[in-house]
Structures are given as structure tokens and as C-alpha cells.
Amino acid sequence: MFKVVNWMIVSRSQLLTDLLDCRWPQEFLVKLSKSHPSSMAKILSVEPISIVFFDLSSIDLQQVYQLQRLIEREYCSIHTVFINFPKQLDTRFLIHPSTTLGVFYADSSLSEISLGLNNIMKGRRVIPQELLHSTASDENDDDSEQLTIREREVLQTLLSGSTNLDIANQLFVSESTIKTHLYRAFRKIGVSSRGQAIAWAQTHMHEVRI
């Protein structure tokens, strides 16, 4: 008996979800669920989803990070694929070695994505080599769970109630760079919100190795 494969696209773009819903079910013989970020968790709890696709062009990166963490923590059988992955921002922190199956840049065509998805269905990971290489380098340099000096600095500034823009001005970097440092630090210390990070820093900052 043919087993139905269930995929989910998480996006705020109705145009994109409608386009994929017209194409992917027939092309890959899957059932495609369409979800807004706020309703993803509810759908995952009732539907047997195997792959979640995140549209990074329409969802805030912090929210994607939190949703990815939810999948890693509560749905170990579900994998993730990122589409519209930005080249200009350092978003490698979203790529998880055990859950991420594919990454497609924002300039990828639907045909290129389809080719990649065919490879994923054959059991392969489809992630650009430069991302795999840089992610591996980061893990070796940081010992994967060890905070860098800059990440420690950013966490320390949270204790004073500073906003991302305040921190960026203090450290003479862009606000997007501060967000990247925070997301990486959040993953390493196992938290998913600013409040949790502050609580963690209040208790553990003196124990962090640099």
C-alpha cells in the first residue's frame, strides 16, 4: 500500500504557499500542509509531518530559530529544509547536523529546488559546500558548545537591559551581527528567549570558559 508522505511549508507568503501547493503534491506525490509560523506547533502535534520547509524570506530569523529548536527538542523524526536562505547574512546557526536536510539560497529557481528535493528523497543532504565547510570550521573552533569571547560580551550586555541596537553601538558592529551572536549563544546554552538567556547569564556567566 502506498504510504503518503507529509510535508509542511511554514511561510507568511500566501503566494509562495499556493504556488508550492500547486506544484509539489503532484511532482513528489506528497501531501503539503501550509502553516503560518504561529500555527506550526499545533499542526505538528496532530499531523505526521516528515519535513518542515521554512521560508526565510517571510519569517523573522529569531522566530525560525525558536521553531527549529522546538523541532529538535520535541520531534526528533522531523527534518527541516530552508528555502530563500540569505547569502548576505550569517545564518549558519540555523543549520543543525541531525535535522537539516537542505538549504536553498534565495536566488535558487523552483527547478533547482525540485532537483535538490529529488536528491533529498533519495536520502541525500543538499546543503551548499561553503555552508558545510564553514559550519564544520565553526564547530572545531568553538568546540561546538563553548561560547566565544564576543558571544560572552553580548550575553553580558543583556544583563544591563540593553537592546540589540544598544549592544551594536557599544561594540561598533551592525544590529544584524548582534542578532547572529545572540542566536549562536542561545543554541550553545540551550535557551530560546532573551529572558531565558538573561536568567542563564545571571547564574552561569562566571562559569563560562573562554
β-sheet strand percentage: 5-15%
Query: Number of helix segments?
Result: 9
Biggest β-sheet description: 5 strands, parallel
Shape: elongated
Properties at a glance:
five-stranded parallel beta sheet; 50% helix; elongated; 210 residues; alpha/beta; single chain
Give an overview in words:
A 5-stranded parallel beta sheet has the order 2-1-3-4-5, with helices on both faces. It has helices at residues 14-28, 40-44, 61-74, 110-121, 129-142, 149-158, 164-171, 175-189, 194-204; strands spanning 5-10, 30-35, 51-55, 79-85, 100-105. Mean pLDDT is 85; it is low at 139-144. The protein has 9 helices and 5 strands, in the order E-H-E-H-E-H-E-E-H-H-H-H-H-H. Helix 6 crosses helix 8 and helix 7 packs across helix 8 (175-189). It has 210 residues and is α/β, with parallel strands linked by helices.
How would you briefly describe this protein structure?
By secondary structure, the protein is of the alpha/beta class. The chain contains nine helices and five strands.
How does the SSE layout of this entry go?
Blueprint: E1 5-10, H1 14-28, E2 30-35, H2 40-44, E3 51-55, H3 61-74, E4 79-85, E5 100-105, H4 110-121, H5 129-142, H6 149-158, H7 164-171, H8 175-189, H9 194-204
Parallel strand pairs: 1-2, 1-3, 3-4, 4-5
Helix pairs in contact: 6-8, 7-8
